[in-house]
Amino acid sequence: MEFKKVNHHNKGRIISIQREVVQIEFLSGGLFPGEILELDENPDIKFEVYSAVDEKTFTAICFGNIDSLYRGAIVVRTKKVLNVPVGEDLLGKVINVFGEPLDGSVLKTKERWLTQHPPLDYQDVSFRKEIVETGIKVIDFFTPLRRGEELGIFGGAGVGKTILLTELMHNTVFFQKSISVFAGIGERLREGQELYEILKNNNVLPSSVLVFGQMNESASVRFKVGMTAVAVAEYFRDVKKKDVFFFVDNIYRFLQAGSELSALLSMVPSEGGYQPTLVSEIGKLEERLVSTNDSTITSIQAIYVPADDMSDPAVQAVIPYFDSLVVLSRDVYQEGRRPAVDILSSSSSVVDPDILGNEHYETYLRAKEVLERYEEIKKIVSIVGEAELSIENRIIYKRARKLLNFMSQDFFVVSDQTGRKGQYVKREKTVEGVRKILEGEFDNVPEEYFLNIGDVNELKK
After folding, report:
1. Per the residue annotation, which of 13, 77, 161, 398 is the catalytic one?
2. pLDDT tens-digit map of 16-31
3. Of 45, 61, 102, 192, which shows the fewest CB atoms inside 10 Å?
4. How confident is the model at residue 1 (pLDDT cuts 50, 70, 90)?
5. Shortest CA distance to 164 belongs to which of 457, 397, 407?
6. Quick check: is 161 catalytic?
7. What is the pLDDT of residues 319-368, one digit of tens each?
């Protein structure tokens, strides 16, 4: 097939297409990495320059419908890099990777922000000792979240990651009165719609910005949408001096999209089968989610765990960035406790008496000790039965089961499905309840009474 040469210095032509990865010939050369190009006959279809093959040939990644592409199609330079509209006008809106509204609304803001920013210098980063109360007992007690830090929710398919993250989003925005930015990366369209309706019905949407790159979209969009959301969060932090809560569902899909692009770019995969740039890619996103002396970004992210295998290379690449790890368990889920948190597998670097206070810290240590002993006793019970336990072990066993049930809770965001009102429990009430259980104050109360209660004082009713 013969092509006409394009001599205009701002125009080139597509000479090769491999799904989202295209090669473009610019006779004038001069394209730089990250530059945005547009399809001449449809400017809504954009490309980002990835690398140079030679002086006149460039590899680019397409954002948009690749069905519209063909060899010989004319591409126009913009001499700009990817940027998105920012401002308080975004609050309450749903946008895509380019900052364009997906909910039929109109953006009035003229201000724009680059999606790619270098992370802050170390001396500009601030560390806080302030605990963010989430109102969710198991998180506030066992994996507390510090303002300006990161919490990761790890779990396989169908164990409640999205529900827990959505409840956290509801509680932090509704009760903490903060701005939230949500990045929906590679999730189902149905889940995005459900989240929108939940936030709208619970009056949380007006304080939120939703950025979506869903499962049906190309790998290039799913890979970049997280950066768009980070840029919006950085704007509120640096320009508006607001404390921001940054939510991601699901960060694994970001890495998965990078793996797909890596294969299209003919990169040699790592031993685990992922892209060789896995660690640097997650670093470019996570290193930007930091706080300054004036304002904070507190991040809460869901991470899909393939086949429930925490040793997966992508999961291991993400773990070091989190201060608190909440691990959801299929076994706990099947036992009927919600949220299905595996307490002993979860952890937090925030567990410090200077941050939590002595009462919480000491109660936490006692609770972990009881639960660790419970895991040992449970194996004995499964073989010989509870009746064969010593009196001391029987007391520990029963108190541990009451403690585990006490960590279950009804959520606001699913109250329509469960028929039960959501509960927000103050951290000091949770600590008080755990302490009373461990001290034996409720030894005569059946363990099933502790399921889905809020404060232990409800038992008196």
Report:
1. 161
2. 999 889 999 998 888 9
3. 102
4. very low
5. 407
6. yes
7. 999 999 999 999 999 988 999 999 999 999 989 999 999 999 999 999 99
Active-site residue, from 35, 187, 234, 281 = 187
| Selection from 179, 229, 231 nearest residue 204 by Cα | 179
**194 carries an active-site annotation:** no
CA distances 317 to 174, 187, 281, 310, 322, Å, are 32, 20, 10, 11, 11
Q: How far is the CA of 135 from the CAs of 73, 144, 197, 280, 444, in angstroms?
A: 55, 11, 22, 34, 27
Would you call 348 helix, strand, or coil by DSSP?
A: strand
Using DSSP bridges, classify how beta strands 208-213 and 297-304 pair: parallel, antiparallel or unpaired: unpaired
Choosing among 3.90.1300.10, 1.10.1140.10, 3.40.50.720, 3.40.50.1820, the CATH entry for 356-460 is: 1.10.1140.10
**The model's pTM:** 0.92
Can you tell me the mean pLDDT for 374-390?
87
What are the C-alpha distances in Å from 366 to residues 370, 396, 399, 436? 6, 11, 12, 12
Query: How many CB atoms within 10 Å of residue 418?
Result: 12
pLDDT, average across residues 83-100: 92
End-to-end CA, the chain: 82
CATH code, 85-350: 3.40.50.300
3-state class percentages of the chain: helix first, strand second, coil last, to nearest 5 = 40, 20, 40
Q: CA 144 → CA 32, 83, 107, 409, distances in Å?
A: 44, 35, 37, 16
What pLDDT digit, counting tens, does each position of 112-133 carry? 999 988 888 888 888 888 899 9
Topology annotation, domain 11-80: Thrombin, subunit H (2.40.10)
Tell me the two tokens of residue 263: 């294969």
3 state SS of 127: coil
Give Cα separations from 181 to 132, 207, 241, 385 (angstroms).
17, 9, 15, 50
Please indicate whether the domains covering 85-350 and 356-460 agree at the CATH topology level.
no
Query: Is residue 135 a contact partner of residue 425, using CB atoms and an 8 Å limit?
Result: yes
Please say if 93 is a catalytic residue.
no
* Catalytic choice (188, 190, 420, 421): 188
Q: Where are the domains of the chain?
A: 11-80, 85-350, 356-460
